[in-house]
UniProtKB/TrEMBL annotation:
Belongs to the TO family. The keyword 4Fe-4S does not apply. Keywords: Biological rhythms, Signal. It holds the Pfam family JHBP. The lineage of its organism: Eukaryota, Metazoa, Ecdysozoa, Arthropoda, Hexapoda. One of its GO terms (cellular component) is extracellular space. PANTHER family: CIRCADIAN CLOCK-CONTROLLED PROTEIN DAYWAKE-RELATED, PROTEIN TAKEOUT-LIKE PROTEIN. One of its GO terms (biological process) is circadian rhythm. Residues 1-16 form the signal peptide. This is Protein takeout-like Protein.
Amino acid sequence: MKSSLILLIIFAVARSAKFPPNFKICNRKNPNLDECLKEAGFIGVRQATKDYPEIHLPNLNPLEVNEMKISAGSQGVVNVNQNFKNCKLYGVNTTSADTLQFDFEKNVAHVSGRIDELKVFCTYELNGKILLLPISGSGPSTVIIKKLKVKADYNFEQVKKKGKTYMHFTTFTVALEPGSVFFNFENLFNGDKKLGDNINKVLNENSKQVFDDVKEGYAQAFGSIVKQILNNLFAKVSIEEAFDQ
Ligand SMILES: *[C@@H]1O[C@H](CO)[C@@H](O)[C@H](O)[C@H]1NC(C)=O
């Protein structure tokens, strides 16, 4: 009795799954596949405001991320490693796609679009210099990015398993172009409010320059979060289930 129960559970875990009916799916033979996928992606991110455990898709609003490390910039503006923990990202569901393409010959997915407003709440840790000013502290942080343009290419492999084909995402490039960025780091300098307020003011007066210096770090961080989501999702939903229905 016990062993048959275990077998049943393993069978359930190993089974592949289809997208739930509130998601739109597109057949890859559809002559308007790109248009269809664009709409499917749009609907998909708007639906993902709860967990879908059956397809290994987490709630995207808020999207919870344990850790994000953004390295110091390359132009000397941001001379500090930014360590973020226990992050909650709000606004992924405000994404609109301009392009969503899957090329199964070249094994690459192209995405471009815009996130209206992305709010990133974390616990930060900083110790270094920004704009030549010393900055140090730890506490709650807020980064709000408005009208964020995103362009990404994700390479994948096709892995055959039990007669089905699964996408496994590998390398990627992501480019970000924000409309505006707002920073707030609470409790800087062990809670010295005057110093902290001053630094936040300087950061926001120069937010474009500051973000530009660490944009690549943010792009890598967001890119690998999305890669993990895609890999979990498409390890569950095969190409046949996603694109041949
Ligand atoms: C995003 O999700 C939140 C709830 O998690 C909701 O209040 C908001 O209206 C959604 N935005 C869009 C554009 O769907």
